Amino acid sequence: MKAFIRDILTTLALAVVIYFGFRMTMQPYIVYEVCMEPNFMEGQRVIVNKVVYKFHEPERGDVIIFYPPAPYNSSQTPFIKRVIALPGETVEVKDGAVYVNGSKLDEPYIKEPPNYTLKLQTVKDGYFVLGDNRNNANDSHYGLLAPRQNIIGKAWLSIWPPGQWGSATSYPLKEQIASASNSN
Q: Smallest Cα–Cα separation from 122: which of 100, 150, 146?
């Protein structure tokens, strides 16, 4: 009988450790808007990796979940966006394309090219983020930057609906900029 009780207590302790370990390192997130279509649909659920940015900074192409700064944070609902430019870099949107540090990005993940322009600017005080559904997203082209301290983590796995199961794809935008710079 003692062995049975010991086994149950060990199993419960292990379950508690696993549960709290998961909650400290991962977090579920529900996509609330259409701003990331066609890659993330409204109602889709993803697991957010909360520890990845303890080892390195966000990179261009990462899909991040963050709390938007005022005045965008009225509902306290986190946003999901793609990192396009890092602090200190320049960004511009013109002729239906995004340019980072003067290099045009090849963006196969967007729903459609942006139908707006954004004059050349240097990113300060955060990360320049855009939704994949460029023309229907409240993002950095309206002045919203993602402050580093507000980033919860990186979209890691899609877990719902079943047809969307799998890893959340990041696009290596830094390689695009490096190859464009080398070809100039």
A: 100
